[in-house]
Batch of 2 targets.
Target 1
Amino acid sequence: MNFERDSARAVGDKKLQSALINVTDRFRAARKRASDETPGWDDLRGRAREIKKHTIAHLDEYLLELERNVRKAGGRVHWARDAEEARNIIIDIARRNGVKSVVKSKSMATEEIGLNDGLEAAGIRAVETDLGEYIIQLAGEHPSHIIAPAIHKTRHDISELFAEKLGVPYMSEPQELTKVARERLRGEFLGAGMGVSGANFGVAETGTIVIVENEGNARLTTTVPPIHVALMGIEKLLPRFGDLSLFLPLLVRSATGQKTSTYISLITGPRRDADKDGPREFHLVLLDNGRSGILADRETRESLYCIRCGACLNNCPVYRKVGGHSYGWVYSGPIGTIINPQLMGIDRAPELPFASSLCGACRDVCPVKIDFPKVLLELRSKVVTRKEKTGQAAAIMEALSFRFWRAVVTHRRIYELALRLSRHAQRPWKRGGVLRSLPYPFSRWTDERDFPAVSETPFRERWRKIDRKGGPR
Amino acid sequence: MRANLFITCLVDTFFPQVGESMVGVLERLGVDVRFPVEQTCCGQPAFNSGYRADARSVAERFVSVFGEALSQGEGEESYVVCPSGSCTAMVKVFYKELFHNEPRILEKLRRITDRTYEFSEFLVEVVGKTDVGARYDGVVTYHDSCHLLRELGVKDAPRELISSVKGLEFREMPLHDSCCGFGGTFSIKFPKVSVSMLDEKLDSITGTGADTVVSSDMGCLMNIGGAISRRGIPVKVMHLAELLANTGKG
Amino acid sequence: MTADSREEILHRIRKGLGKGEGGEGKDPYPPEPGSSSAGAEPYGDGLARVFEESLSGIDTSVYRAGRDGVLEFVTGFIKERGVKSFSIWETEYLESLGIAESLEGGGLDIAPAEDKAGIAGTGIGITEADYAIADTGSLVLLSAPGKPRGVSLIPPVHLAIVRKENILSDMWELFGVLNGIYESHDAIPACTTFITGPSRTADIELNLTLGVHGPKELHVLIVS
């Protein structure tokens, strides 16, 4: 992972820039309209936050309740400590049933565990069926947005990709491209031995998992193949069935601005004995993969309240410029800056908590009111503590400069001396009242921006004059 | 009514005219202005960079300097007034994080935060004025500082003050509440991203046809102004206090 | 291995939350999700009209008929489309209307629900929505032996018949009703599906395209 390098590349990619402005503008406006039209929106967000807070504070009990109820409905529950274990569980289910090919609906959790590569390595074909995911898979890439995984691709890119990979003639209309995908994927659904989905929510009270979508591929994935495996992060729980009446509108309206999505499936176990369709087996894989570690930290625990709507991405001025791939892992945008370091281990993503201007636009739109700036600041302090221990030269230099700064600003006389000294020190660079080029690291500012010169008479000196003029106070 | 200026290290060091303007406006409104000379910085640079111990020691000093200032002037309503949404937010919002394990300091802090105001909020909410007798012949647009808007929830006060200036035409810019790309050390940690955000902000500003851009934070204005001056864009960059200090009488 | 993982994950969670191994017993109730913020229910034909309005905003055609007019409508609808085969739910209500017999009598084939490829080859799927939500224009379908999920999903056209009395005002009301059904575990269907408009995607340059995986057309007949 290298946010600085990858984000700089993204900023220079004109095609990506216009795609990003397009997608973030559209989703932003749609979310705003939908939330404005929902009476008591802010109150609903507050309630959702309280419910998530309660659920996470009792996560062990709710997980057990969920497990009990999934079993009661005839489903099986598996627990995966990490990505590898989750992959193995799913591969094992496939092998035991002689499954050669798997259809998948969109799931960030399966991205997180690298399921497709795992299945391929085990000799099992995995086909993504969400149109955006299908395009990404054909291109051999990774999603760049939670909701719209292929927004970084133009219709021209997709036409060329389909022509190359599917052997169809070049066509540029989205309708035609969509039709090609529909036909190809219909065959995959009918031939697949197993469907793998994610889950937007898991309801403890009933053992129900909920999938929200617009295309219908998740319905096909969970209806047509004889086996359905759902992979769900352990934080996605809701206590009661009725909580969905709050969370479904919040999720959809925050994500796409629709009043509700085209399809919502509430799945409770496999098909019943007399049912004529639906999978014969239902497996729920509960994924920890670092989540219990996030829970252990009170200050950042709220990162687990996230319902993956993507609103923070669409409203983030940084995401708008750098796109999803700069964040180096599955989750991007503000939510990526807080959960990637916590899930991967902070040493593996130390740049991400800093990849934010702390503007707080994400917090304003978050349906569960995650206090992103607060969590980011908490993580930054952790990164610094860890870095200082490593004893790397750059880390020591940075720490020393803050130590020096502290010594200056905690002593008024030294501070005033520093002001006087910098007035002299800046002279070689000063041109017309500003500094146009400074040595590294300040060159990172002056490469494209002028830097103000230290004033010849700082305010505190001017104050002495003002004060004298005004007489005794 | 007494205002103890919390001038911020940016204004003190680089933009002293903003501080003078602030004094001018406040005195015009009959406020008794003081400057506690022991003040330096609020500690935000270290806090935002993850150096909490350093930030704490600087912040503690702030608490003692301004605690002392507020305790003087008996019988008079005394406040801390600051020309920066960001530094005000540091004191009013983030100090609580910084000292959450130190009840002794939190207690002292509470007395300060209750009396601390960002400049525009102070004029409108405490002094109770939107028309401060300013005059400015120009077309003005306003950039919302993220911290003033989202940490302190101040959106209307600066607009009311600007709109009451005589001779002035106010034009709201699109994306007025989008970050300009400053973000403290963010601007030098990721300069390409920062400048790209700034580009969009500049388009937004120039698109209004305004000849002056005003904001309430010198951090933002240093960033916006740095590019305006480098590129020679014919737009004046002004802190709200400078705009309001203008009376058109010389 | 899985049993160990279960214990380990639960242990990590309890440790993270600062609880003992047995857990401490959860709060009696989680915070309430709230209730409908909508005003008084419109009476008479009000809900049906709201429902119609919502549907028209999401690329769905709406029709109205009395009970006696349903058969005629469906026959005409199918003739117009020139399909050779169809699939249909076997609910008490639909059977009482005699739709399946009448269409078969007219020379059309019924694809059995078990035969997915067969359903895929049909031109139209006919269902009876258990509930509808006026506020969002949603159909709510509960799976059951005579009500396979594929019928509303696999054919390119979906015709849903909604009885007016099953139209509810909003999601809050719906979940109240579903809660009643879900109360007994044996009564929970394997799948409850909400359908709001035809299948759609915007994955290519955010261009709206209908019928990517599910039906391209959704038609709703409200029966009063």
Target 2
Amino acid sequence: MKKIIACLAAIFWGLCIWGQGRYTISGYVRDDKSGEELIGAAIGVNELPSIGISTNAYGYYSLTIPKGKYTIMVNFIGYEMLSFPVDLTGNLKQNFNLTRKVKELNEVVVMSEKRNDNVTKNQMGVEKLNIQEIKSLPAFFGERDVLKTLQLLPGIKSAGEGNSGFNVRGGTTDQNLILLDGATVYNASHLMGFFSVFNPDAIKDVTVYKGSLPSEFGGRLSSVLDIKMNEGNNKEYEVEGGIGLISSRVTIDGPIVKDKGSFIISARRTYADLILHSLVSTNIIRDSTLKDSRLYFYDLNAKANYNLSDRDRIFLSGYFGKDVLGITSFGFDWGNSTATLRWNHLFDNKLFSNTSLVFNDFNYTINNGSTTHPINIISKIRDYTVKQDYQYSSGNNNQVKFGFISTFHKMVPGTITTSDTNTIRKSLPIRNSVENAIYFSHDFRISLKLTANYGLRISEFSLLGTAPFYIYDSYNLIDSVKNVIDSTRKVKSFVRPEPRASLSYVINDRNSLKVSYARNVQYLHLLSNSTTGSPTDMWIPSSYNTVPEISDQVAFGYFRNFKNNNYELSAEIYYKNLLHQVDYIKGAILNFNANVESQLIYGKGRAYGLELLLKKKYGRFNGWISYTLSRTERRFEDINDGNWYPAKQDRTHDISVVAVYDLPRGWTLSGTWVYNTGNAVTFPKGAYIIGNNVVFLYTDRNGDRMPAYHRFDLSATKQFAKKGHYESNLNFSIYNAYMHDNAYMITFRQNETTRQIEAVQTTLFRIVPSVTYNFKF
Amino acid sequence: MKLLSQHITKRIDRDQFHSVSEMKKFKSQDYVRNTMAVVCICMLITAFYGLTSCQKVISIDLNSASPQLVVEANVSDKPEPYFVKLSNTVNFSEITEVPAVTGATVEISDSSGNSETLSETGDGIYRSSTLKGTPGHKYTLTVKTGGQTYESVSRMPFPVGILNLKVKREADNGPGFGGSGDQSVRYVVNYEISDPVEYKNYYRFAVYYKNGIMMSRRVFDDQFHNGKIIADDFELHDTVNFNPGDTVMIELQSIDRGAYNFFRTLREGGGGLSFLSASPSNPISNISNNGLGYFNVCSVTNRMLIIPEK
């Protein structure tokens, strides 16, 4: 610890010395209409072409350059470029307001220098999604979805039809850290995963890191999905919304005090149940069991911010969502809630501080729908987090980030409550743990063409009481720890350093090469007994049995822009080595098992692949083609004789094609086509008889494949002419337009008459048309 | 879709390795996990578009596996003939005629030098005549067939007494999850046994009905109850309908670890719905040379019980 502080101090001192005789220009970049801060806006200096930085997650920038006269250029996608002359004779505070481009039908795109950010920036394995991009793509049931759109990018694969879970570079779905304004979202799904919890109207920015994670992030092996909520318009009030077949949403935002603070509230609810009830009651559907069905979700996003002074700004944001499902004798509700209080402070124009207090909760309740004999099973995960980040900018492209994070996790895997005294009450033990990390990273330019970043994160995880804790050797209990009574005492601790580094070499303004390495550690593990993922999947902390998972990833990338930066091509290859992966013993029982760790086995994994992305960003016709060739394998002593075998999420080929075409008279057409190799699965190879029962014969784990998955979605949007402040559009979407029967699952059964074994394929969606009306005023 | 949920529920009902209380949970969890997604979405789609045909039988070309020997061998401390049944695995297309393995040499020997070659009675069944099982002795099963030798070694555990055993009749529309309501009664066996502290013990309850048909069974161990009284319950359920006044024989088998692992991982009739399990696999066999099945050497305690009227 002392060494690290000394190290940090040395870096600072170095930076300060370097800073002598130079001045700093700093401030915020904002949208001139709404006052929203713009994240990732590029700042360049015309006279110093080697300098290029971008605004941080709060829209703040800081640039230190020698005294002199310059033209500062500020650029952000979708906005007019701003040139601003300065005569730098001292430190300068300068905010920039950018104007959103008016979309004209015969738009002539003005070329800006910073359109080649993808080539020149020292980052790889990062995908950013523009919310406007999401809004123009086909939507399932008319609900635009951040997570679904991400799955169209290379290296990010859908975990299954209608599943908001995703696999990044061969990682499992629990190896993604999903953050909403800094709060962990443990289950990002609505309606068992057919929709995600992120309402696009409330979202400002989506960034996914699939390669080398910045040192400020940790706790998961594969990726970080960092989602920032909108801040709201601080100049005038706005209402935005949409009305669809099964859901509607509305967003209101506006100033709290003009130019000082703003708020946004966004709400969404599905009403399929109401329609269903009316169909049942009018006898259109003759199934009386559906009469009492409950089936909906709702969510609410709210955020407020206020400028206390030039140097201080506070934010308060929250999310609350809930799903309610139920039929006559069965109910299942689940939901997430998060709250984030954040304070941005500028110590001086070089040191930016961000302090956050975060709370998040995920819980589910299963009930039997009985009023006379109610039984409830309640499970929850709750985190309390304190996070402190500092960002120090100095000199020519020199930036240091450092800080700490501390999280208390409380996991209640399952508590049964009942009024019926005859039923055995069995509750699973509550597990508390603490996860801490300190980090720093340094971004700097070695030469005109070479940029480097290195960083270190040191994380620590402690499992807290109370006893007993059992120690197993694949299924068999070998020892136990029983003397820990105090629930605040540490019983088992792990400390793991996580070094990360990247290097980028700009060959010229159209070509660059990048390389990165990162070690990530994960202390929480998700146990899932199904292939599709469900809210009832269980999180467990690292313990005496399950040690922290570790991944080492190296990636190499080539980036090239063509035709005046109109086309972007990126090619990345990666290799990942995974340690202490978790799988299950044969015939494992995970559900409501107090001794669930006895069902686990541990092994290794590896993943490697090639990702290609060709993107046309500008013009009336735009879109991308993404292709991933990959392999993901695991090795466990007790599975397939200890040989490498394909992981469930192993997919050889994965292709996405996305096209958007702006037509005259306000029409936009878009289409997406996806194709991927089926998941690796285990099918029975034959059968035998034990007693009088048929037992299926299995040979290799994951030795079979689901059929290849492919689907074409289509959407048409008509933008109506603006009337005063009122804007509106009508969107028609068709999901699975050519009606391909994709296999959701394949099961085997014995035909009751012929006694033959047959394979049965279940298809979820043949074709799903939908229509949504969106408005804004 | 309804079919699917019935199918799953049936599958869960057939799972005989859970006590009634666990069963309820199991039901609920899997019900949630697997059916709700499908059911609710199909409800939606049916409601809006009526375009769905959720399920269809498809043909999958499964690489056929070469036949493997399946052994079902039982030895107990009861003075009666012991049986070994031999069969082969088959491809799916041959499931209606599973071939018996005939002409094999089946020998069981014990640690005190007794040995017997079992005589074949037809249909792949081999029968002992002189062998007598004794707790504490080690037994070796040797099967020679098709030029291969298969072996299994098992020590007979000591018998464990039953403290308390009764059958209770319960209304099935009680506070369970997803109760279908079409089965109005069920029978639950409550048991109490005193686990000896000296050994690691593994247990199996077997229930025999009229004609000696074995129906329900349940396996458990003393991992978390060593030396304590183990009290739990399990449900009697099968396709056979019980009648009040019928006699059932309940047998507590004290089994060894190999047999326990087999029965624990055997999901009768089950494995097919592979999506229910994260790790579909064969039951763990205690037969060498890649043989499937089990060699169960157990000591037993029997009780006769009468199905109650109320």
